[in-house]
Design a protein that fits this description.
Distance between the termini: 38 Å
Number of domains: 1
CATH superfamily: NAD(P)-binding Rossmann-like Domain
Protein name: Short-chain dehydrogenase/reductase SDR
Bound molecules: NADPH dihydro-nicotinamide-adenine-dinucleotide phosphate
Number of strands: 7
Structural class: alpha/beta
CATH architecture: 3-Layer(aba) Sandwich
GO molecular function: oxidoreductase activity, acting on the CH-OH group of donors, NAD or NADP as acceptor
Strand order of the largest sheet: 3-2-1-4-5-6-7
CATH class: Alpha Beta
Order of helices and strands: EHEHEHEHEHHEHHE
Family: Belongs to the short-chain dehydrogenases/reductases (SDR) family.
Low-confidence stretches: 4-11
Number of helices: 8
Organism: Xanthobacter autotrophicus (strain ATCC BAA-1158 / Py2)
Strand content: 5-15%
GO biological process, one term: fatty acid elongation
Length: 268
């Protein structure tokens, strides 16, 4: 375990003289098969920082392809995060392949832009299942291993939608699910802290990925930018960098935190 004084030093300097933050660590990332998504950007970033990465995605072939793109030591496994047994099976496969899991990034998610009066039981359930229940099930699947090792970093994907309500791309059910992620992550942070496991959240603003591709009109874009002091939409790397901080020992004394990645959208 790190002493306070250790956190002031770079974790490890690689052979090229650059700081390597995740050397010797294994990271599981859900929803990482999408080539333009936040999950894959995070996987690439972690791999570049020395981690061995396991990409879990509904699309098994896409996960395997994404992992192969990173290099032979990385693995891609099919996993439906809404299915508790499937999460346990997938984490078992990761452990069989890698022997350890140090980091879990709960990134998988779906959205649906509908009005609150149009939300039916099926769409409510589907949005809660992937965005919220998936975080619980995948976190539960890594817990026995992390608790036994008395170490682990879990970071969860929430959204600005949880904080400001809705938005042009997500409905009220999505806001509710992502707000649920904040409560779930904080509760996990409290319960798992004594086992050396940190749990944190990110709340991105509008990030350009497949989830919103082609859905933002030029007019909407102008309106959105009026409310973003940094005057641009986010890119996946903006979020991947924060996940890197939360996954690494640089954040050794950070748990139960929520980090906004939104260009200043919520300054008030
Ligand atoms: P993507 O659609 O590119 O990524 C979402 C990934 O989750 C996809 O690879 C998808 O797989 C996967 N996924 C969906 N359902 C499941 C499931 N049941 N089990 C396993 N994997 C699943 O979009 P983003 O990269 O934008 O989204 C990543 C996360 O960031 C999501 O949680 C999203 O809600 C959140 N977010 C995004 C913002 C944005 O503006 N882009 C803003 C705030 C939060 P497949 O494609 O194979 O179905």
């Amino acid at each position: 375990r790190l002493r306070a004084s250790d956190t002031l030093r770079p974790t490890k300097i690689g052979s090229g003289g650059r700081i390597v933050l995740l050397k010797g660590k294994t990271a599981v990332i859900s929803g990482g098969a999408g080539a333009r998504g936040i999950g894959f950007a995070t996987a690439k970033t972690f791999a570049a920082q020395g981690a061995r990465v396991a990409i879990l995605d509904l699309d098994a072939a896409g996960a395997a392809k994404a992992a192969a793109e990173l290099g032979p030591e990385h693995v891609g496994i099919g996993c439906d995060v809404t299915d508790k047994a499937d999460c346990a099976r997938a984490i078992g496969e990761v452990l069989a392949a890698t022997g350890q899991i140090d980091i879990l990034i709960n990134n998988a998610g779906i959205t649906q832009a509908i009005k609150v009066w149009d939300i039916d039981p099926e769409s409510w359930a589907r949005i809660q299942d992937v965005n919220l229940k998936g975080v619980l099930y995948l976190s539960q699947a890594v817990m026995p291993h992390m608790r036994e090792r008395k170490a682990g970093a879990i970071a969860c994907m929430s959204s600005v939608s949880a904080q400001r309500g809705g938005g042009i791309l997500g409905g009220a059910h999505y806001s509710a699910a992502k707000a649920g992620v904040l409560g779930l992550a904080k509760a996990m942070a409290r319960e798992l802290g004594a086992d050396g496991i940190r749990v944190n959240c990110v709340t991105p603003g509008l990030i350009q990925t497949d989830i919103n591709a082609g859905k933002i009109s030029d007019d909407a874009r102008v309106k959105i930018l009026e409310n973003i002091p940094l005057n641009r939409l986010g890119v996946p790397q903006d979020v991947a960098n924060i996940f890197l901080f939360l996954a690494s020992d640089l954040s050794a004394y950070v748990t139960g935190a929520v980090i906004d990645v939104n260009g200043g959208m919520l300054i008030h």
